């Protein structure tokens, strides 16, 4: 069996650790390769073509703004047996497509799954528990992927609601960004708790607006991931939110930051019914002062 990981960042390294742990107890021989376009991180030393050729599973551990390019690069190199697993949680800016739609658009009939949930790489590498939702239209795909992690501390649940899980990952990143900006501006846990609850409510409203399963927001891929991301010092969205709050801008990128404007475009004029999303737009897109906007917002409650 051949497994390829594309992207040798933190989550790619964490998956490599889990797969190596699982393979110790597996009778079947397993070749695990990890590829990165950055030569200094390309542990296999092989080309992308060599790494994906004849692979049984390919884990896509790249940010959403790199996903389309990656899919196009591998589209004519995939074996019919290959199963793709994407860990990206964002919206492509140019096409405004979510991860599931990007995969379907660029790799045709390839079997795939989305892996989402509270899975911080640094905790995985410390042998801590992690939890994921594997979303696929084919439950046999879920069963095959789940088997890869037997004996590890990654616990997986199945969902057939692929578009809903994809959007849930987008929303938890965007609302983590919002709560992080508010938290860094006020350093007030009561207000942070209030806005976290309001964020969950708005996420459910957006799911309804987009005719998706709003109950996904209350599960592992929604609320579970949101709580972990808002709380963790490892969260890139939290770091970006803190920068915007304390410095007025950020030089860093995060999934929530990149996906905000495309999400507003997808929702259309209805986004004006969502107070927290409007607040985030004023601060992030229109570059309004975060503390002033939050102060005015709280006066209206």
Numbering strands along the chain, what is their spatial order in the largest sheet?
Answer: 2-1-3-4-5-6-7
H and E order: EHEHEHEHEHEHEHHHHHHH
- Give the structural class: alpha/beta
Helix count equals: 13
Query: Helicity, in percent?
Result: 40-55%
Can you tell me the CATH superfamily of the largest domain?
A: NAD(P)-binding Rossmann-like Domain
- Determine and state the CATH class of the largest domain: Alpha Beta
Stretches with pLDDT under 50, minimum 5 residues: none
Total tally of structural domains: 2
User: What is the 3D form?
Assistant: globular
Largest sheet: 7 strands, mixed
- Architecture per CATH nomenclature, i.e. the level-2 architecture of the largest domain: 3-Layer(aba) Sandwich
Question: What is the alpha-carbon Rg in Å?
Answer: 19 Å
Average predicted confidence as pLDDT: 94
The tally of strands reads: 7
Under CATH, the topology of the largest domain is which?
Answer: Rossmann fold
Distance between the termini: 57 Å
Q: Strand-residue fraction?
A: 5-15%
What would you say this structure looks like, in words?
Helix 7 (162-186) runs parallel beside helix 10. It is globular and about 60 Å long. 52% of the residues lie in helices and 12% in strands. It folds into two domains: 2-160, NAD(P)-binding Rossmann-like Domain (Rossmann fold), CATH 3.40.50; 163-299, Orthogonal Bundle (N-(1-d-carboxylethyl)-l-norvaline Dehydrogenase, domain 2). It is built from 13 helices and seven strands. The longest helix is centred in the middle third of the chain and has 25 residues, at 162-186. With 301 residues, it is of the alpha/beta class. The protein has helices at residues 10-23, 48-52, 64-74, 99-106, 121-124, 139-148, 162-186, 189-209, 220-231, 236-247, 255-267, 275-285, 290-299; strands spanning 2-6, 31-35, 57-60, 83-86, 111-116, 130-135, 154-159. It has a seven-stranded mixed sheet with strand order 2-1-3-4-5-6-7, with helices on both faces.
């Amino acid at each position: 069996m051949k497994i390829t990981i594309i992207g040798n960042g933190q989550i790619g390294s964490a998956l490599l650790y889990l797969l190596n742990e699982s393979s110790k107890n597996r009778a079947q021989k397993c070749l695990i390769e990890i590829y990165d376009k950055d030569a200094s991180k390309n542990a296999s030393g092989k080309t992308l073509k060599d790494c994906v050729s004849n692979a049984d599973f390919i884990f896509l551990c790249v940010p959403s703004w790199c996903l389309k390019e990656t899919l196009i690069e591998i589209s004519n190199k995939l074996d019919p047996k290959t199963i793709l697993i994407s860990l990206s949680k964002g919206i492509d800016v140019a096409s405004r497509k979510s991860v599931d739609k990007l995969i379907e658009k660029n790799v045709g009939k390839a079997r795939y799954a989305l892996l989402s949930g509270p899975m911080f790489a640094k905790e995985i590498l410390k042998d801590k528990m992690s939890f994921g939702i594997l979303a696929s239209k084919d439950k046999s795909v879920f069963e095959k992927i789940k088997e890869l992690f037997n004996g590890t501390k990654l616990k997986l649940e199945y969902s057939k609601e692929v578009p809903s899980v994809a959007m849930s990952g987008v929303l938890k990143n965007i609302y983590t960004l919002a709560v992080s900006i508010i938290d860094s501006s006020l350093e007030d846990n009561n207000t942070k708790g209030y806005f976290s609850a309001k964020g969950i409510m708005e996420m459910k409203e957006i799911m309804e607006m987009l005719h998706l399963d709003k109950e996904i927001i209350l599960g592992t891929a929604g609320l579970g991931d949101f709580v972990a991301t808002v709380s963790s010092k490892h969260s890139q969205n939290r770091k970006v939110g803190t920068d915007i709050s304390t410095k007025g801008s950020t030089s860093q990128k995060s999934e929530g930051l990149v996906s905000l404007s495309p999400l507003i475009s997808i929702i259309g004029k209805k986004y004006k019914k969502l107070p927290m999303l409007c607040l985030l737009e004023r601060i992030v897109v229109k570059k309004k002062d975060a503390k002033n906007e939050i102060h005015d917002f709280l006066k209206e409650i």
